[in-house]
Design brief:
The chain has about 240 residues and is of the alpha/beta class. About 45% of the residues lie in helices and about 15% in strands. A hairpin with a 2-residue loop joins strand 2 and strand 3. About 35% of the residues are buried.
Length: about 240
């Protein structure tokens, strides 16, 4: 579903005039449909994550989809992979897809092409040397559970991140539904704003320390949500 200017402005919590100004400057991706701007929900969330903008819970809504999954469980499912040798984007993404733990029959070539196509639209690099490559649209490739695979290249790689920082960590998302993709992307982006999490990744800490950092962020977020509900501020 494509979003209108009014929809996108509401989800980002900004004025419509501000949103249209970002589009005219080429800062926010949008399409022209019947001379009106239209926005992709996933791209909007990606853009908000890259620019450290908060989003409303409404952006994650997708009726009939399964509930959110825990980020640490998704990382355990995807695994933490070290020693990627490629020095350029295409080779690095190919090596990541080849090492992704997936069921037999999984179409790795299709996933690679989808991820590469998304990167050609613009880098998925966030600030602080982390990137989150994933398909532009969630795709079903016989994946029963969502996964976040964490990859460490042998040395930082220039992926064209907005802040110009070479990428030392890549987190590859594979999800079975649109809502799960959005929820996991939002949760991961929030975790990657935590200095302790980024620090563990940058120093290539042992797997259990990295997972413990994700666990701690999730506990903190759950506590804050509970406190907000207790105060009557909503979920």
């Amino acid at each position: 579903m494509q979003l209108t200017v009014r929809d996108a402005a509401r989800l980002l919590g900004v004025r419509e005039e501000t949103l249209e100004r970002w589009v005219r400057r080429g800062e926010l991706p949008a399409e022209r449909v019947d001379d009106r701007y239209r926005f992709n929900r996933v791209e909007l969330l990606e853009w908000a994550a890259q620019h450290h903008l908060p989003v409303t819970a409404e952006i994650l809504e997708d009726p009939g989809a399964p509930a959110a999954v825990r980020l640490p469980s998704a990382v355990r499912g995807g695994g933490i992979h070290r020693g990627l040798h490629a020095r350029e984007k295409e080779g690095l993404l190919r090596e990541m897809v080849d090492r992704l733990p997936v069921p037999r029959g999984f179409d790795r070539d299709f996933l690679y092409q989808m991820i590469l196509a998304r990167e050609h639209l613009g880098s998925t690099g966030l600030c602080s040397g982390v990137a989150i490559p994933h398909p532009r649209e969630p795709i079903v490739l016989r994946v029963g559970q969502p996964a976040v695979a964490v990859f460490f290249p042998d040395r930082p790689v220039d992926l064209g991140a907005a802040d110009g920082t070479p990428v030392h960590t890549l987190c590859l998302l594979v999800c079975p539904s649109t809502r799960t993709h959005l929820l996991l992307l939002a949760t991961l982006a929030a975790a990657l704003r935590d200095p302790a999490v980024v620090g563990r990744l940058a120093e290539r800490a042992p797997d259990e320390e990295i997972l413990a950092a994700f666990e701690r962020v999730e506990r903190d977020r759950a506590r804050l949500r509970a406190e907000s509900v207790a105060k009557g501020d909503g979920a």
